[in-house]
Amino acid sequence: MKIIDILKNPNPTISFEVFPPKTDALFDSVEKACEEIADLKPSYMSVTYGAGGGTSAHTVNISKNLQEKKGVVSLAHLSCISSTEELVHSQLEKLREAKIENILALRGDIPEGFDASHLDYHHASDLAKEIKDFGGFCVGGACYPEGHPDSANSNEDIDNLKKKIDSGCEFLTTQMFFDNNIHYKFLYKAREKGIFCPIIPGIMPITNGKQVERAIKLSGTIMPARFLSIVDRFGNDKEAMTQAGIAYATDQIIDLFANGITHVHVYSMNKPEVAKKILENLSAIVK
Ligand code: FAD
Predict the structure, then answer these.
(1) CB within 6 Å of ligand 1 — which residues?
(2) Which of 26, 35, 56, 104 is most buried, judged by most C-beta within 10 A?
(3) Which pTM does this prediction carry?
(4) Domain ranges, residue 94
């Protein structure tokens, strides 16, 4: 099933994100965690992609397993900046063969010292077009309510986002954010620029203090004072931080649903217990 059709559901729905193992040795434990999350029956699951190495092959394997064994629709991520047309086509063939119908088209982060002189792809929009031309896939893209760190400003970033939609992206998933007002402002700006596709908020339940530093480094996201005081108070106590982080994420999700958003993507990070708790907290809302 195509995600663009899943998103037509007018009732509150949740999807989860998982990441493939970094080494073959970890495959079984990651697969088990993914299956436990799939048993919660989310409306779909996304599987991230690490360019090169074992993880790119595992993105297909995990996505396929979720669909075939667990009956959960999967969204396979695919990045392009350090890839060639040939590699992208071979990955698309594998995804088609595995009956994966949904791809999140990404540029990927630019590695330090990267030689950008002979690239087959410069932006996610190049990949989105290529996938659409290949045929048969529902294509999504990433977006950044606080602007992508490479952009001069958020207006320029939204203009570029419009190019991504014009290249074939049918829905967008946001980078994590911790203040819903940032998302509402972004939605308003995107609609003003003519971006009318579904924009799915991505929510990250923070379960340890170190994750906060990583989140800030990765996305430059603004941490509201209310959230920072939770981290200050509970960041060094794993159990307390897990409980508080899940409560904070739940609160964000309820506010999003209350404000007319129908679908939320949760960065569940291969943690079935976190995914389960979030759904328990929403048991009368997400049915
Ligand atoms: P792009 O859309 O290409 O944007 C990157 C920069 O280029 C922006 O500044 C943008 O404004 C500019 N730009 C875009 N299009 C144009 C254009 N046509 N002309 C000029 N400028 C342009 N990374 C992974 O490696 N694997 C994953 O699985 C993964 N999953 C992700 C999922 C989500 C929901 C998100 C939000 C991010 C994910 N990332 C992943 C990280 C992502 O790869 C990085 O943030 C990367 O730096 C940018 O990727 P992008 O697809 O957003 O790039």
Answers:
(1) 48-49, 51, 77, 79, 104, 106-109, 123-125, 142, 148, 150-151, 157, 160, 163-164, 173, 175, 202
(2) 104
(3) 0.97
(4) 3-281
